[in-house]
């Protein structure tokens, strides 16, 4: 009888732990990486925005690798920073802008007014909404679907790895991991610091998902870095390319960064 009671307690404890872990995971905001794109500005303060303003398409974009935003308003460009928090919370910091005078400045003035008030966001059916503390709608945007797969072309060498307590030089003292994309066949090859590997991937606009990774089984002095690298590849949900640097992102965290070597 006592044994059954102890077993029941253990099961309850395990279920509680799983529930707590699940809640913690959900609180991070499952679609943070979805922001990492360009968005056509649909409305500000419930007022529809024209598809072209002063001959330019009004667009709002996020760069999760740098935690920066930029807006093409049809007049002056706005730029600044942002901070992502739990449960789709977001805070924008005041940025800079160009100083032109235009006939139509409603997008620029509208964004400058609402961004300090935005406290959260939601994404549904490729539509992004900015909300204030009272959940009132401040602005809406539509995803600009772009084929960014060509940006991945080439060979890349790792120069930063996250979600580990050790630096990249401690984990890879002799050879750093590489990654090379074949954008026509959506396949990849590389070296994890010890073993060669290959696999597949899928790109949808800014989204990136790796398939199963197959690797050789060489015995090296340490596989700690390679193991961390492969685990991070499994976590990737989006990417960003800035000149000769490729950043791979999970949710709102940049966990792998490469420099182009070929």
UniProtKB/TrEMBL annotation:
PANTHER family, per database record: DUF306 DOMAIN-CONTAINING PROTEIN, HEAT SHOCK PROTEIN HSLJ
Name of the protein described by the UniProt record: META domain-containing protein
Signal sequence coordinates: 1-21
Keywords carried by this UniProt record: Signal
Pfam families: META (PF03724)
Keyword field contains Cytoplasm: no
UniProt keyword Signal present: yes
Protein species of origin: Sphingobacterium litopenaei
Segments forming domain DUF306: 36-141, 151-258
InterPro entries in alphabetical order: DUF306_Meta_HslJ, HslJ-like_sf, Hsp_HslJ-like
């Amino acid at each position: 009888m006592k044994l059954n009671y102890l077993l029941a307690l253990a099961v309850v404890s395990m279920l509680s732990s799983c529930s707590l872990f699940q809640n913690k995971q959900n609180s991070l905001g499952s679609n943070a990486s979805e922001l990492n794109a360009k968005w056509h500005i649909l409305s500000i303060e419930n007022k529809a925005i024209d598809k072209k303003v002063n001959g330019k398409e009004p667009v709002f974009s996020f760069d999760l690798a740098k935690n920066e935003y930029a807006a093409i308003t049809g007049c002056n460009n706005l730029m600044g920073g942002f901070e992502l928090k739990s449960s789709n919370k977001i805070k924008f910091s005041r940025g800079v802008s160009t100083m032109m005078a235009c006939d139509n400045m409603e997008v620029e003035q509208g964004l400058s007014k609402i961004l300090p008030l935005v406290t959260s966001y939601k994404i549904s059916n490729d539509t992004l909404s900015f909300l204030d503390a009272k959940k009132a709608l401040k602005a809406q945007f539509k995803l600009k679907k772009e084929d960014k797969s060509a940006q991945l072309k080439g060979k890349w060498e790792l120069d930063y790895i996250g979600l580990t307590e050790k630096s990249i030089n401690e984990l890879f003292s002799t050879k750093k991991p590489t990654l090379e994309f074949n954008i026509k066949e959506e396949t990849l090859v590389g070296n994890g610091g010890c073993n060669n590997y290959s696999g597949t991937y899928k790109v949808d606009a800014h989204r990136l998902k790796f398939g199963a990774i197959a690797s050789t089984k060489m015995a090296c002095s340490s596989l700690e870095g390679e193991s961390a690298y492969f685990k991070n590849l499994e976590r990737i949900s989006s990417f960003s390319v800035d000149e000769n640097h490729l950043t791979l992102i999970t949710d709102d965290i940049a966990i792998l960064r490469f420099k182009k070597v070929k």
